[in-house]
Amino acid sequence: MSQKRTYAALAALAVAAGSLAGAGVANAEQRTGGGHGAQRPAAFERTATYPVFQNRPAGEDAAAATVAEISAVSEDGRTLVHTDAAARRIGFLDIGDPGRPRGLGTLSLARLGDAEDEPTSVSVVGQYVLVVVNTSASHADPSGRLDVISLRDRRRVASFDLGGQPDSIVVSKDKRYAAIAIENERDEEATPPGGEEGDLPQAPAGFVQIVDLKSISSPTGWRTRAVPLTQPDGTALPVLAAAGIAEPTDPEPEYVSVNGRDQLAVTLQENNGVVLVDLPTGRITKAFSAGTASVSGIDTVEDGRIDLTGSITDVPREPDALGWIDDRYLATANEGDWRGGTRGWSVFDSRTGKVVWDAGNSFERIAVRHGLHNEDRAEKKGTEPEGVVIAEYRGVRYAFVGSERSNFVAVYDISNPTRPVFRQVLPATNGPEGLLPIPSRGLLAVSSEEDDAETGVRATVSLFRLGKGTPEFPGVVSAEDSTGAPIGWGALGALSAVPGKPHQLYTVTDAVYSPTRILTVDTARQPTTVTRALTVKDAAGKPVGYDAEGIHARPQGGYWLAVEGKTGTGNQLVRLDRDGVTRQVVPLPADVAAGLGGQGFEGVTATTDRHGREIVWATLQREVATDPAGVVRLGRYDVEADTWSWFGYRLGSTATPGDWIGLSEITVVGDRLAVIERDKLNGPAARVKRIYTVELPKSASAPGSLPVLAKKLAHDVLPDLRATNGWTQEKLEGLAVAGDGEVYAVTDNDGLDNATGETVFLNLGSGKKVFGRRG
């Protein structure tokens, strides 16, 4: 039974980043709602995560790249269609049951044109799928087409030459028009005269295509109309030049959205601008620059530290996606491209072109608070908010903003367009690209474009449903530090009870971050909350970075850390005092260290008898080379005698190529030792995520011996992980029995390195339930 969290309390962590008159900027998170007795707002709960490789054609290698980028849905909301540029096809899913999406096969674009044709976007009108296809031979020779596919039999019923390389497509609410951004994107390796590599301008210029859908029952009668964004001779349109567009002779339109008055909004991402077009006439009615922003309180240095003291100054927003909030206000996701990106999103008044609200640092801080900060992107564009869509559910208008690099979608109530209120975070798999509201069914679909079978990162379509239940995510958030910034956290690979504090746990960051920090976690808060961070120091009192894989809080004060080395000799037990200062380092015996590769210590625990004699127990993850195959060592370290003895634990086996089974945690439970045994598989391939117990030896083993302890299954955690309806996490690594007797487990999110970044924090129930009466 995975732990549920009261959503009213999550609302207490909400960001109500308000606006100032004119061009409002929210540089700090503000709280709204929450508290005991507060009415629980509606929330989106994940119902399923579908790996799109499972929908591949018969006979295709399961490891072949197949992605889900942009999605659309049939008018009855039951058939989802997505682009798959990697495999040059579109995919179809039956989402009639949101809890059990079912693959309906794919349509290869090679059947419709050439094997190298690439779908870039998709929409649905009536019984037809509108697929825009990039057929370009090169950046200098762009081309594309619009294919109209019957949803019933997947036959192409019409095709239109678009005259350039298309990016996105949108259909107007009245179904009279479709509009397509013809980007004719720049070559990042080309150097224009007088410029630098990748600079603008690079001919030919992009434009907009309007498709008149005179009759949605007869696509053969549709007609296209081009809306040029430059003069016939290639010079700049006065309206774009006057707006301060960066390079108006090369507009490069990126994304399109239509309001209820058939006004088209188009982003010019590389040019940091927005253009408005009247669809009935094809006339440009306005153009404006997205402007610049200065943002403070963010992480701008890739150094292994989540340090929210950095800033950026006068950076172009360079919006990617945009969406009409109503017929006046526009929202933009300010991903950035080559010169910009402001790590948030903005609301513009389309009448004036002015910013009326800006997320400032709050979007990045949402990522930090939820353990989704991607340190590898700190020096670049941070969270990279790429997508934004607007939809109304049950009379409430929401904005959904997707973070490409931190793998989440933030949900905002935008009932007041100039004062968005943050409501919740939805976890996604890697690279959420397509955000698809399906309000008629209370659903949201999120399609992800990252796919790498070798690292276990697979593209998916995730479904969320609006309800009044309690979301599984987040399991952990962080409180604010003394400066008002959220405490940075991630890679929670170890747990320990806090002596004397029945509702608190300790965890510790591993090598993903430096210096090492011990985090205090309060399970009485909802969600469970990181409330304090203690920096670990070396013997000289200087901050130090350990690859800490295990932690034990000593009743007599201080901590033991199990530190994993890159080589066998780097593995050590480290004793810290109350202030986190290193007071003792215990190396592995030389003969054991010599038999280890890169996988050593993974967990640590200890017992102290009534006479104060302390015995430390530590587990290795994998076998020592000289030991019997399948037997891993549990180490017993007698602190007073400064001696090691060893016991064996027999691992399960796996038949999956490239997989292995190992241990990742150890803790004392009454008269037994509990360990986590797991495989290295994730997603639908995951098989072994279990807690076993062995008898706690009463004395040391004989020198040179390795007696194997009999193990007993206490709890299979795999069903708990799968019950989240997300991507089943690989690294189940933390286990502890808190002072209140509850058993907790946590997954290590690897700091988003080849991982979704989602942390699953589980309350498995009472120790008596999990381990039996002796627990």
Automatic annotation (TrEMBL):
> Which residue ranges does the record assign to the Phytase-like domain?
488-750
Q: Which domain of life is it from?
A: Bacteria
| Keywords, ordered alphabetically | Signal
What InterPro entries does the database record attribute to this sequence?
Answer: Choice_anch_I, Mesenchyme-surface_protein, Phytase-like_dom, Quino_amine_DH_bsu, WD40/YVTN_repeat-like_dom_sf
Signal sequence: where? Answer: 1-28
Q: Where is the Choice-of-anchor I domain?
A: 341-423
Region Disordered, as annotated, extends over: 183-202
PANTHER family tied to this protein: MESENCHYME-SPECIFIC CELL SURFACE GLYCOPROTEIN (PTHR46928:SF1)
Q: What is this protein called?
A: Alkaline phosphatase
- In the record, what lineage is assigned to the organism producing the protein? Bacteria, Bacillati, Actinomycetota, Actinomycetes, Kitasatosporales
